[in-house]
Amino acid sequence: MLAVEHQDCLRQLAAGHATIDDEPSQMGDSGAVVFPIDGDGRNGSAAVRSPLAGLTGRPANSAAEGAQHMKGVAIGIDLGTSGIRAALVDARRDVMAMTSAPIGAAERSDPDAWWRALREATGALAREASLIDVEGIAIDGTSGTILPVDAAGRPLAPASLYNARADPAAVARVSRVAPPGSAARGASSPLARALAWRNLKGWAHLLHEADWLAGRLCGRFGVSDWNNALKTGFDPAIPGWPDWLHALDLDPSLLPEVVPPGRTIGRISPPIAKRLGLPAAVRVVAGTTDGCAAFLATGAVEEGDGVTSLGTTLTLKLLSSRPVLAPDNGIYSHRIGSLWLPGGASNTGGGALAKYFSPARLAALSARIDPSVVSGLDFYPLPSAGERFPIADDALPPRETPRPADDVAFLHGLLESIARIEAEAYRRLAELGAPLVRRVFTVGGGARNPEWAAIRARVLGEAVPGVELRTPRALEAAVGTAGLALP
Question: Which class for 243: exposed (0-12), middle (13-18), buried (19 or more C-beta within 10 A)?
């Protein structure tokens, strides 16, 4: 259970009663960026606006109050792997308009392509709904995509994408100085990749893609958020840049100032506002990662709330009052207001099912499954050898035999086995220090399979008595990001 102050804070945040603290950050003695935030995420007498603020709109006490409450409108920008999605959201988190603009694979590393897509998606919003009441805009991006820029924010090289591999020597250097639980470790470490730019002339700021787009909007570069900066070495428990970074051959002044998601970082520049058709006083707000934004969109706000994504792989995140670190399983924790968001990813999921069934065939067979019946099969479906979580074994082989002659029975066993892996993953998080999952919100393509949902409800209920499967409030990361920018 949450401590009393955490519960009270969350109730206020969910009701939209928290305020924004725009006081400047302070520099600690070590040079780390430090924010005067106490244990429950509040800043003395003024509360820091949490990313959980207002995710569940509160009812109006009167018609006048309701009209006033509906005035706040915000835009959320989700920079994903193949383009941008933009959401226009009102004060009750209802979507007023949703648009998108593609970014080709060949130009995904080009910041100019990100900016073009943002303009196109925002312009499309203006054609679908009025933007006159927009008060804030926030941006999320892929976790670990980084960019070197000069003092004016001009890119000095193509972006290094989230899934790019770093030079092994740089990875080893980071591993020697970073603590075992740091998200900056690993073969695709953004911090290790940034070391390749250390001799760039004119390099002034190391930014993440969401940081750069926010800078284009308000003209203030060199600012990031707790979540995007995590894999670059930022420690949200301080919160600040840790001292061990000084052991790397990287100028500390290149690292951005880091603020909580939802903190106002500036006002939109007048020429940009005019070009995008936005009011001149729009606040540009610190964003988050795409994964955290998708979590926020679901409406999960309580400790013990989990979000399972049934896509090509199976990923899950869980709100916790404490961070959970398990580097051997690839588990690290983002900070969400006064809470933490540990998460893990299994290689099982839609990719394993696709080895045997097309989407149409899978849907047809699923409709013939009785989810109340136990299949009696014990599989570990994987697209190929290797697993990350809840089992960490690079050589773990798929286990999908004996295969029944009846494809309905075979699919039944596969879906039930993936559900058991999901239950084991939540159990493993609890074993590592997270709370038991109480409510599960499901996103991804697999969320549209009702038979699978019923199987998961049965399997999760057996593993964690009392757990509930909930329908997400929204599925788009852009909606969660827009919530950060609401007043």
Answer: middle
Contacts of 214 (CB under 8 A, 6+ apart): 138, 139, 220, 223, 265, 284, 285, 286, 287
Question: What's the token pair of residue 445?
Answer: 């393509």
Boundaries of every domain in the chain = 72-293+478-485, 300-471
* CB burial string 286-324: b at 16+ within 10 A, e below: bbbbbbbbbbbbbbbbbbbbbbbbbebbbbbbbbbbebb
- Please write the tens of the pLDDT for every residue from 264-279: 999 999 999 999 999 9
Q: How many CB atoms are closer than 10 A to CB 478?
A: 32
Query: Do the beta carbons of residue 131 and residue 278 sit within 8 Å?
Result: yes
Domain at 300-471, CATH class: alpha beta
Q: What is the pTM of this model?
A: 0.81
- CATH code that applies to domain 72-293+478-485: 3.30.420.40
What one-letter code names the amino acid at 389? F
Ramachandran angles phi, psi of 369, nearest 5°: -85, 140
Residues 140, 144, 148, CA angle at the centre, nearest 5°? 95
